[in-house]
């Protein structure tokens, strides 16, 4: 089954009338299947974040269509988009975006509280998820008291609690040491394998990307190439490095 269909998507930026137009995304069409774990790679400035943010409904499109779970999100009003995003989409940021004044547990349950769900349901779902992600021990800690790796697991739990159809992540390992990055990628891989979550990950890091099942490479706002993993991390990692050097300017 197809989860996301993108047709002739563009995003143009213009700083002021008369200024040069930057084609951040320049005519992209693609489909993402349900249960896919797809990586978006490319040099700094190639349009990865712009593409991801349009897919996640955070950034309005200039032209083109994005259908997610049978809804054309480019046709939704601002309010309907916000509802759709809250109900169907999860987003993990590079810098965690946790609220410092709330505990770990409260951060995770926040989307359900905003959705006015019963406190008992919030408590139960938060517990289940913390157990699954191995962060129950730090439930009552403040974000300032936990490590970067733990923060990103908490952020992932918050993104997952609404049981979204798609999880988007923009450089989620960008602020993590290599051990924590490895743990986070294993966790995303497990969510994809065990719960069939559809995951769309932006990264410039070949190691993180090697956990994906498929990678699309962007260059100057366009799709340059797609590669598919054979399931072997080491071999896929080597293949990613090859493609990066072939495409050129791939370092962020
Ligand atoms: N809000 C914005 N206003 C103007 N230009 C932007 C804006 N956001 C991104 N761009 C430009 O769009 C291009 C793609 O940016 P981005 O999607 O952030 O790339 P990446 O995530 O691959 O590094 C870059 O040239 C960037 O400068
Ligand atoms: Mg980016």
UniProtKB/TrEMBL annotation:
Keywords assigned by UniProt, alphabetized: ATP-binding, Nucleotide-binding, Transport
GO annotations of cellular component type: membrane protein complex
SMART domains: AAA
Segments forming domain ABC transporter: 4-245
Cross-referenced InterPro entries: AAA+_ATPase, ABC_transporter-like_ATP-bd, MacB-like_ATP-bd, P-loop_NTPase
GO molecular function: ATP binding; ATP hydrolysis activity; transmembrane transporter activity
Species for this entry: Lysinibacillus macroides
Family the UniProt entry places it in: Belongs to the ABC transporter superfamily.
UniProt superkingdom: Bacteria
Protein name according to UniProt: Multidrug ABC transporter ATP-binding protein
């Amino acid at each position: 089954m197809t989860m996301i269909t993108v047709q002739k998507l563009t995003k143009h930026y213009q700083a002021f009338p008369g200024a040069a137009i930057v084609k951040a995304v320049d005519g992209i069409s693609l489909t993402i299947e349900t249960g896919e774990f797809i990586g978006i790679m490319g040099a700094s400035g190639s349009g990865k974040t712009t593409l991801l943010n349009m897919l996640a409904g955070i950034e309005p499109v200039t032209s083109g269509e994005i259908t997610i779970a049978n809804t054309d999100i480019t046709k939704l009003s601002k309010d309907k988009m916000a509802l759709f995003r809250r109900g169907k989409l999860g987003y993990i940021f590079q810098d965690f975006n946790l609220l410092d004044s709330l505990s770990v547990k409260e951060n995770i349950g926040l989307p359900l509280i905003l959705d006015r769900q019963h406190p008992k349901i919030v408590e139960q779902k938060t517990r289940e998820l913390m157990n699954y992600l191995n962060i129950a021990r730090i439930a009552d800690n403040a974000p300032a008291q936990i490590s970067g790796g733990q923060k990103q697991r908490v952020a992932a739990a918050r993104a997952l609690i609404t049981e979204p159809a798609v999880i988007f992540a923009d450089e989620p390992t960008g602020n993590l040491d290599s051990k924590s990055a490895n743990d986070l990628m294993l966790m995303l891989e497990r969510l994809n394998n065990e719960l069939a979550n559809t995951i769309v990950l932006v990264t410039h890091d070949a190691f993180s990307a090697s956990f994906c099942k498929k990678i699309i490479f962007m260059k100057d706002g366009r799709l340059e190439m797609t590669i598919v993993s054979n399931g072997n991390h080491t071999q896929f990692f080597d293949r990613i490095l090859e493609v990066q050097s072939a495409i050129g300017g791939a370092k962020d």
